[in-house]
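Predict the holo structure. Ligand: magnesium ion.
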Amino acid sequence: MNYRIAVLPGDGIGPEICDGAIKVLKKIGQKFGHEFEFEFLPIGGAAIDKYGTPLPDFTVEKCLASDSVLLGAVGGYKWDNMPVDKRPEKGLLGIRKAMGLYSNIRPAKLWPSLAQASPLKHELVKDGIEIIIVRELTGGIYFGERGRGEENGAAYAWDTEKYSVPEIERITRIACELASKRSKKLISVDKANVLETSRLWRKTVHEYAAKHFPEVEVTDMLVDNTAMQIVKNPTQFDVVVTSNMFGDILSDEAAQVTGSIGMLASSSLGDGTRGLYEPIHGSAPDIAGQDIANPIATILAAAMMLRDSFSLTAEYNEIVSAIERVLDKGWRTADIYSENCTKVSGSRMAQLICDEI
Ligand code: IPM
Ligand code: MG
């Protein structure tokens, strides 16, 4: 088969980690007889510098015409003081919205060979951790009205969070589908003791799940308590569903608990099979261009694309087990390095994974 993949390398370490993932895809293509075509498109700061906007129209058009999209990362110090419409992050939010990708799945898994890299005590992680965060991605405070004003001589700013029942229902459906294939337990995270949107969220999640997925047991957890529980007792979680902003925050925490944020990938999907796949970490401008960034999260993102957009499950499994073998042999990038292992560059890590395929 032939697949057309739009690649949005973005900023900082984005281009180098995308390189690694592309190498792995090419190797998988050779082994399984697929042809992957890559089209590189600008987004983020790189697009601002060249085209004066973080998301040129042609980037959106070509992503919508592709079979799926691979993204590196956006952002950097250079653009930190730009007005909000000219910030790299706006490009990422814009492409998620333009492609209708309301469902962001972020699996945080502890790799057995990396248990040492977890900041938690061994007894808390020894049985493995796998927390799948299902984050609503095109609504909430990220996309609500916002503004600035002045009152009695003092400047102020405001953002708003809004969620509709259909928006909550469709993300609940995705989370329930996942939960029903796994533990049949879903934790819905909100702040219903304070926020009106959270009260609607809670009610809608329960009603929808009870009606369409009676086999799934839904429990509520307040977001502050969730942040605490993730470090106190991470094994209690399986599938978690939450709003855009809470999902952003909790997924970084869950990632770090499993060892390194450099290992976690995410998929963003809407109603079709075309998705956007990216590592959950950022552009890390402080280490960009030094070939020390860990490409594994982006390689896993590419693997998720094969499985979730193209239904290539054997190819997905092949990549994951190649990564496992490389880790078992003791190869580590700097972020996951521990004693008695061998430290390698980012490009070498990608090559080692290709060699295992
Ligand atoms: C993420 C990132 C983005 C977000 C930023 C870069 C806009 O933190 O994907 O988690 O907040 O969604
Ligand atoms: Mg984030």
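The longest strand covers residues 2-10. The mean pLDDT is 96.
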